[in-house]
């Protein structure tokens, strides 16, 4: 995910990277690009990410990592992403408590449905 400013417009873009079942390649799809109307603070970014994940039926436990630059608002949003304060990985914090708790197949359950939701939204 990344935020950008173009003129007087401010945007937040979120991509999903996943593997398609039966294929040996990664797929990257843009989930959403939203106009943040100038709001790039930590709590706003976090709330928008959660809303976009919900829009596509993606549960937090299916998110294995979040790739960001080192902007303070993005780092803060990722560090505070989980409601129950579980640790997730950022460029400054390499703890993996959250991902270690995931069973091997847990993160990929429902990926077909997520892909269908993303394809429908893209049309």
UniProtKB/TrEMBL annotation:
Natural source organism: Chelonia mydas
The organism's taxonomic lineage, starting at the top: Eukaryota, Metazoa, Chordata, Craniata, Vertebrata
Lineage top rank: taxon: Eukaryota
Protein name: Zinc finger BED domain-containing protein 1
């Amino acid at each position: 995910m990344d935020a950008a400013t173009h003129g007087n417009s401010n945007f937040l873009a979120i991509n999903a990277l996943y593997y398609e079942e039966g294929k040996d390649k990664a797929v990257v799809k843009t989930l959403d690009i939203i106009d943040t109307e100038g709001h790039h603070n930590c709590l706003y970014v976090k709330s928008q990410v959660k809303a976009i994940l919900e829009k596509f039926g993606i549960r937090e436990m299916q998110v294995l990592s979040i790739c960001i630059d080192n902007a303070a608002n993005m780092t803060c949003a990722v560090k505070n992403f989980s409601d129950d304060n579980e640790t997730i990985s950022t460029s400054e914090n390499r703890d993996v408590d959250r991902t270690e708790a995931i069973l091997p197949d847990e993160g990929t359950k429902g990926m077909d449905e997520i892909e269908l939701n993303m394809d429908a939204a893209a049309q």
